[in-house]
Amino acid sequence: MSIGTVASVCLARRIGMVAVGRTLADDILVQGTNVFAGGFFSTAGGVFVNFVAKWNGSTWSSLGAGVGPAGSIVQALAWMNNKLYVTGRFSTAGGVLANSIAAWDGTNWMALGSGIADESIARATSMTVLGSDLYVGGTIGFAGTRSSWRIARWNESVDFNPALQFSPFTYSGGQFQFGVSANAVEEFAIERSSNLSNWTEIARSTTSTNVTDAAAIPAQFYRARQTR
């Protein structure tokens, strides 16, 4: 079955990365009767699409103005909440400032908060959906306003902010002191372990809280776990 061409690349089924000359199709996503393709190409079936396009079974079409600027690349696609999510290396989507990640709702492009960034050039290469969360992986140093090393989670309710996050630990008078901030979490438990296998609950809270706990030798580990 022929489904047209993305520049000089013929797409019928994705097995790894398809490349002819300098044109690349990095990812393909099937949603209903539509096929979405993203990569390093400017046209699809003779239509200018700017690195992401849709095939409806008979013709290729653009998704608004696509992503930019020239030389950008879309490396991963995902579908969640009736939106197409694209990530890769770009700074705009449909003329909207969007740092390496954006969503298309069928009519308009939208940024995901302040996007993702790295010390040099952010380049996300993979995405997957779990429930109402979108997980992004790649050359990532920051997601939104948070440090996020190589992986980030997006949720429409909480942006890129993690549900639970530790503040820096301090040590004084034989005790560890730290805080846990909660974002859109009803309740969470703070637990301690000396071996990463057996965990003991030391606190439970419904709001951001500070914790003081006696230090242990040789090691002490902490985690925050959402309970409801």
Q: What is the N-to-C succession of helices and strands? A: EEEEEEEEEEEEEEEEEEEEEEEEEEEEE
Radius of gyration: 22 Å
- Portion in helices: under 10%
Q: Helical element count?
A: 0
Unreliable stretches covering 5 or more consecutive residues: 1-22
The averaged pLDDT comes out at 80
End-to-end Cα distance: 49 Å
Rough outline: elongated
Compile the SSE list and pairings.
Layout: E1 5-6, E2 9-10, E3 18-20, E4 23-31, E5 34-40, E6 43-44, E7 47-48, E8 52-55, E9 60-62, E10 67-68, E11 73-80, E12 83-89, E13 92-93, E14 96-97, E15 101-104, E16 109-111, E17 116-117, E18 123-130, E19 133-139, E20 142-143, E21 146-147, E22 151-154, E23 164-166, E24 170-172, E25 175-182, E26 188-193, E27 200-205, E28 209-214, E29 221-226
Describe the overall structure.
The chain is mainly β and 228 residues long. The protein folds into 2 domains: 5-154, no CATH class; 164-226, Immunoglobulin-like (Sandwich). The strands form 9 sheets. It has a 5-stranded antiparallel sheet with strand order 3-4-5-8-9, with no helix packed on it. A 4-stranded antiparallel sheet has the order 11-12-15-16, with no helix packed on it. The chain contains no helices and 29 strands. The N and C termini lie far apart (49 Å). The relative contact order is 0.09.
What is shown here, in short?
The chain has 228 residues and is mainly β. The protein folds into 2 domains: 150 residues, no CATH class; 63 residues, Immunoglobulin-like, CATH 2.60.40.
Looking at this protein, list some descriptive labels:
228 residues; mainly beta; Immunoglobulin-like; 5-stranded antiparallel β-sheet; 4-stranded antiparallel β-sheet; 0% helix; elongated; disordered N terminus
